[in-house]
Design a protein that fits this description.
single chain, 7-stranded mixed β-sheet, Endonuclease, Chain A, PLD-like_dom, phospholipid metabolism, 3 domains, 17 strands, transmembrane helix, alpha/beta, cell membrane, phospholipid biosynthesis
Amino acid sequence: MKQMRQIVFILLLGITFYLTLFSEQPFPIRVSAAAVYIVIIVSVCYVLILENRSPHKTLLWLYSILFFPVVGYVFFVYSGQLQVRGHLFESKREDNQRYLDSSIDKNTSSGWNQLTSEEQFISNRIEAESGFPISFSSEVSVLKDGDETFPAIKERLREATEYIHMEYYTFRDDQIGQEIIDILKEKAEQGLEVKVIFDAAGSIGMSGNAKRSMKKAGVDMACFHSITSGFFTQKINFRTHRKIIVVDGDTAFVGGLNIGDEYLGRHPKIGFWRDTHLKVKGESIRSLQTIFMIDWSYLKNETLGLDTYTPVQNKEEYSGGVQILGSGPDANQGMIAELYFDMIATAKHSVWIATPYFVPDKDIRTALSMAAKKGVEVKLMVPEISDGYLPKYATRSYFAQFLNKGIEIYQYQKGFMHQKIMIVDGRSASIGTANVDFRSLNLNFEVNAFLFRTSSVQSLIDNYKHDMENSHKVDAEAFQNRGIWVRTKESFARLFSPAL
């Protein structure tokens, strides 16, 4: 009902704006049209003010709606701003809770006492936000780049005997994509349950032939927020950025790599692609399976039983804890940003961040600056080679502020760096799909794994050190002397930060 009202408002705004300024209708009709236009605009602005957003955001949207007739309102509606009120995903949020209430084992492990008070605080925050408790009965292995990730994925898919569940932002039918498609088709023809969720925008390059061939073979597919229907439901701007594979309930994969040849360094312009993925065994698979089932239920209106796919088994204790977080507009808005803030704010010795897109909000910028001021070693790694003009220069627009605070900045030069990692005090880490930008922190459906004192944290540290050898450390003085044209591009790109 609310969505239909917004569409009606847009049509009324367009019609009345045209009648007022461009039509040759009699004067009384034009005055009436102008009055209707003004009433709608004033009503929208009044409601916007009542939402009590931050003053600068409220003023920004008021200016857009007032000074960009019709277009400003359309951008407001479809930019994801209405999600602040929470109505777009109300039904999905209720469905999420139903799954979480029946699926999560919250028995406390003895491993909990091995964590510091800061680590326990972060873990409790994650559980409060996502519903998933920490697991000390899970094992994760770090997979570096596509050369390690795709062979591991293909090997496990070929070994599948019961089911395969996949959810991806980008799924192409290029060389590596077709190899995986062939495995999925083969398994479906063997009688296995194969379910695939793909994002309509991220996987727009997947051909119709590939989709039809998978469906014909028996692969059950779900498209996340169709471009066409997404426009009319105002959900076009909300994408699933998740990368999840669960096989037979005993192996899962999650991390930064989508399915496409570029993730194997085959992009003609970008070349080498630096990324990180995780292979998960044990109890945390149930969390990843739950996230997939929640999204499947949302898209297909089909309820799946968690114990059917990942029954509770005897727990084997591993070193360290693993905790999964599924974030998105169906949950508390900005939860991933708050967790990143908490990790930085509670750091005692070091914070190492690697992300391809770094457009942080004010709170994260403040946390990083305060950490550096306290003597915490803060390192930021971003790619020098970028896959987009605006993200590249918007990221660089923050360099001066951080360099002045003593934060070390490294630009990865070997190729494009796409991994999303935060390592705190050399003991805990976050790795997954969420970037440090507005889209990941507010609009996308993301999934991250948080690692506490696992052996995989050391693997991430070793890889980070090796990545620094392939990076250029930004010199504060040299950066300060960059040309006016470069500064102009940075400032221009920064204006689009809320859209990146």
